[in-house]
Write a structure and sequence with these properties.
The structure is a homodimer.
Chain A (H helix, E strand, L loop, with lengths): L1 E2 L12 E7 L3 E8 L15 E8 L2 E5 L6 E3 L3 E5 L5 E6 L5 E8 L1
Chain lengths: 105, 105
């Protein structure tokens, strides 16, 4: 048995992406941020749908077709359809933000 | 945006199962327990693989091929292969236990 809250590096130059499950049509990842944001002008544009929830920390998720970012706290989740362009405006600079993401077709 | 920690009924005669995502090969559910356990002698035997994590509360997950149950706390996750028989021995009787489950082929 493993924990999503353990093995969090004390420092992270980049966001940490770990694949927990990889199957034909689904991939489950833990993502850990420590203050990172998407690069200026960068938008994720994915082939897969994504269900993403924050488990610890906080972050602001910006959808291209929305004026304001969604500020997410633990328990908040969003379903991002394939090709819905989005970016992370900021993540909590004071500690680890832990995301669980399920990518699926 | 919705939260996995909101809209928790104060009383639950039975466990609450809510489907958050239903796609061809993946289903994401929030499950809320308030002290429930699997019925005596009952084993889940599923066609799908399951990734399950506890987000709040605690519970004991028993795999048929293991002697002792796995006592799970928030952040703990387990991957249960299809047809691996399992049951919930107990869930925290003092409050809501919140699970996030991803079923996939």
């Amino acid at each position: 048995m493993q924990s999503l809250f353990e093995n969090i590096p004390a420092e992270l130059p980049d966001e940490l992406f770990e694949t927990l499950v990889a199957a034909d049509r689904v991939r489950i990842e833990r993502i850990v941020s420590r203050g990172q944001a998407s690069p200026e002008g960068f938008w994720y544009d994915q082939e897969e749908n994504e269900f993403v929830v924050i488990l610890q920390g906080s972050a602001a998720l910006r959808m291209e077709d929305e004026d304001a970012p969604r500020v997410m706290k633990p328990g908040d989740y969003v379903v991002i359809p394939a090709h819905a362009r989005h970016r992370v405006e900021w993540s909590d600079p004071s500690g680890a933000t832990i995301w669980l993401a399920v990518f699926y077709h």
